Amino acid sequence: xxxxxxxxxxxxxxxxxxxxxxxxxxxxxxxxxxxxxxxxxxxxxxxxxxxxxxxxxxxxxxxxxxxxxxxxxxxxxxxxxxxxxxxxxxxxxxxxxxxxxxxxxxxxxxxxxxxxxxxxxxxxxxxxxxxxxxxxxxxxx
Length: 141
Known about the structure:
By secondary structure, the protein is of the alpha+beta class.
């Protein structure tokens, strides 16, 4: 059951299990790559009357402990996802803004081999591929 997984994840991250935190995780699970407004709407379907500030606070707390990943493709608002256990990348459609996960296929720890690391100890890579999704390509958007 997803609630049990979220409960364990919250406890494992040292956070109290609260209804708003569970609702945010459920909303992001249901709609990966969602913006705050979409998440807020999803949370309000589960918890009537939850405040906007409460959702913002939960998003920040869950991102800080690594239970959510926040991405912000250039020119877009922040988007959230629960896929945090790997270093994957994203495809973004230039027309409809659809975002799709893309597994990384290069390097011993995915895509972490830079041509020149300039002395950095690299622990994460973020790549965004831009293009046109199949639906927009067919419709000529």
